[in-house]
Amino acid sequence: MRTDRWIVARVFVLLCLWLQACTTLPANGGKEETHHLPPARDTPTAQYAHAEVAKHQGQSGFRLLTLSTNALLSRVVMADHAKHSIDLQYYIFANDMTGHLLMQHLLAAADRGVRVRMLIDDNNFDDKDHLFEALNAHPNIDVRLFNPLQTRNPSTLSRATQFMLEWRRLNRRMHNKSFIVDNTVAVIGGRNIGDPYFDAGSDTHFRDLDVVAIGPVVPQASEAFDAYWNCAAAYPLNQLAKDKASGQRLAAARQLLQHDVRSFAQSDYAQTALDQLPDGPTADRQGAWFWGDAELVADQPEKIEADGDVPALRIGPRLKTMLDGAQHSVIATTPYFIPGEQGTRHLVSRVQSGISIQILTNSLASTDEPAAHAGYVHYRKAMVEGGVQLYELKPSSGQDQPSTAMGKSSGISLHAKSIVVDGRQVFIGSLNMDQRSKLLNTEMGVIVDSPGLAKAITDFFHTATQPSNAYQVTLDPASHQLVWHAEDKNGPVTYQSEPEATAKRRTEVTFLRLLPIDSLL
């Protein structure tokens, strides 16, 4: 039996070495370096945006996208109004219904002569139908993958092997999210491109936040995009694909996208989206903006190559300065909350100095990452004991998604990332409050000094943390154990352990808590 195991182990090692030798990344030194175009001034959208900005002394304007349907259709409308350029950067651009919808509108923009640059992290990249390769064959579309695996559409075994052999490199991902049109208007926030982020999927529905932005912050976003687009970790897709995409493949992709988008247009989802559109904050409609001095913050792409923590490469110190400047209150929303021992002590010390700190994160029943929850529970009791007010999202609110609330009736999970300080300063972006966002992945967002935007996000938070939508975690004075307070259809209810979580998930988290993996979460 020992001999058999030794043979299997030896064969596996030889297989790994063979895969490493046979599949290496191509040289990436000869790619063309391109940059953003000047802000447009010859389109109705640009003329409107510049006129509005001129009224506000160079401040940036923002609209908060809370409705998932508006978040999707705002991107569609922006693509349809583009005349010169579209630059988009995402951790996930899914090969699904809403992904196909945006692909078709990007393709239509390219047909009009718009230059489209798509930068996608390779960790979740799925091109089984060769749609991205086909788009990349269009003369006006350029697709690049960030920090790619060595093979396209790898099998489970191949992916696992590559991660084992190149763990340090492949464990670091680009988590940034931006959608920039004509260097004039941008969407920045927490949403990826895919059905779960727009309420169009059949499983998890993420509750998230984005902002549509105009003003000086947009060219800042374009500068950040260029830094990633031209960095060493961004590989042109045509350097990685085995076969060069042809005009025939692009024609086939057009037919597939037309079929899928026609089916989408006839769906109940599309009708609901159109019904809700007039009442929501969409990119093509004039209306109220939240104005304020704004700063685009983004990690440097070199962060993924750094040995250890290099604060100069990341946005964490800038956010810590914002948090440490709080005089009265901090309200934060994050799907994954792993502050670590030092972070926990710091939050508690801020509460003891008189600052109110309220944090909304996922419950065990609502999270899509049990490992992250396992890291969170190490620090939960200490935070509650220290006066931090913790709320955990319930997995379902049992109602349709209103403009500031939390969801449909099944598979609800929090994905929004925001901070409000003293009812005035705001951060909204891609960064989670965990060690992975701090040290491993690259992140971005906007910091805005705007009481109006702060109030809108605070309203989102207060609706989300109502007892019908979330559990408040407190300490039972008698048992000195954590308890969860909420409301159901019969009134107030208190739970003595993680509410609504399955036995399987409880067991999983109990096991994961034993592993020293906080730095990977």
Keywords:
521 residues, alpha+beta, Endonuclease, Chain A, 2 domains, 17 helices, 37% helix
Which fold name corresponds to the CATH topology of the largest domain?
Endonuclease, Chain A
How helix-rich are the residues, as a percent range?
25-40%
Number of strands: 20
| Rg, alpha carbons | 23 Å
Strand percent estimate: 15-25%
Shape: globular
GO biological process, one term: cardiolipin biosynthetic process
Domain PLD phosphodiesterase: 170-197, 410-437
InterPro entries: PLD-like_dom, PLipase_D/transphosphatidylase
Keywords: Signal
In words, what does this structure look like?
The chain is of the alpha+beta class and 521 residues long. The chain has two domains: 30-279, Endonuclease Chain A (Endonuclease, Chain A, 2-Layer Sandwich); 299-520, 2-Layer Sandwich (Endonuclease, Chain A), CATH 3.30.870.10. Helices cover 37% and strands 21% of the residues. It has 17 helices and 20 strands. It has helices at 2-22, 44-54, 68-81, 97-111, 131-136, 156-165, 167-170, 217-229, 237-240, 247-265, 268-276, 316-324, 340-352, 370-385, 435-440, 451-464, 503-512; strands at 60-65, 85-90, 115-121, 141-146, 178-181, 185-189, 205-207, 210-214, 234-236, 290-298, 329-333, 356-362, 389-393, 412-414, 418-421, 425-429, 444-449, 470-475, 482-488, 491-495. It has an 18-stranded mixed sheet, with helices on both faces. Strands 7-14 form a two-stranded parallel ribbon. Helix 4 (97-111) crosses helix 10, helix 13 (340-352) packs parallel to helix 14 (370-385) and helix 14 (370-385) crosses helix 17. It is globular.
